[in-house]
Design brief:
This protein is an all-alpha fold and 167 residues long. It has helices at residues 5-17, 21-28, 33-42, 135-141, 145-151, 153-166, and strands spanning 112-113, 122-123. Helix 2 crosses helix 3 (33-42). The chain folds into two domains: 5-42; 82-167, no CATH class. The chain has a two-stranded antiparallel sheet. The protein has six helices and two strands, in the order αααββααα. The chain binds zinc ion. Zinc ion is lined by residues 109, 111, 124, 126, 133-134, 136-137.
């Protein structure tokens, strides 16, 4: 069976509608799938995307977009232990006073407590067992990292106060 005007028109129609070559062959009758494909090529219709073989999409060069954080979150150094400095009250003597630079002696803890600018500032005054400090404050003094850094200025402050008291 040849390609009459009518059949070619039908072929075009069915092809543009998206039917496969074998479906068109069936519809037309009397032609093989291969004949349909051949005709389609000759008619220059071959560019159609057939359902059986989807046209290639333009190759994506862009990487799939990653939604959300692009990198694992950097862990902030929250693992640095928070050093809780026990609220040790300075020792009060029988007269209610606390240790000052004047009353501190070798056997007393020289750990400063409070804000040196504050009148409530005092030294610990407990019996010193580890160097200049009592047990509790000695332990604090050897805390790693942050606590240590924070306390670096304190001996300086202490020396300054001692100097001031000596004047
Ligand atoms: Zn102490």
């Amino acid at each position: 069976m040849g390609w009459s005007e009518e059949r070619v028109a039908l072929l075009r129609k069915l092809w543009t509608e998206g039917l496969s070559a074998s479906q068109i062959a069936k519809q037309l009758g009397g032609v093989t799938r291969n004949a349909v494909i051949g005709k389609v090529h000759r008619l220059g219709l071959a560019g159609r995307a057939t359902p059986s073989r989807p046209a290639k999409r333009p190759v994506r060069t862009a990487r799939p977009r990653i939604v959300g954080p692009t990198a694992p979150r950097m862990r902030l150094p929250s693992s640095v232990p928070h050093v809780i400095i026990p609220d040790l009250e300075p020792v009060r003597f029988a007269d209610g006073k606390t240790a000052t630079v004047l009353t501190l002696n070798e056997s007393m803890c020289k750990y400063p407590i409070g804000d040196p600018a504050d009148t409530a500032f005092a030294f610990c005054g407990r019996a010193s067992s580890c160097g200049p400090y009592c047990q509790d404050h000695a332990r604090l003094s050897y805390q790693p990292s942050q606590a240590k850094k924070r306390r670096v200025s304190e001996p300086d402050e202490l020396r300054r106060m001692v100097r001031l008291a000596a004047m």
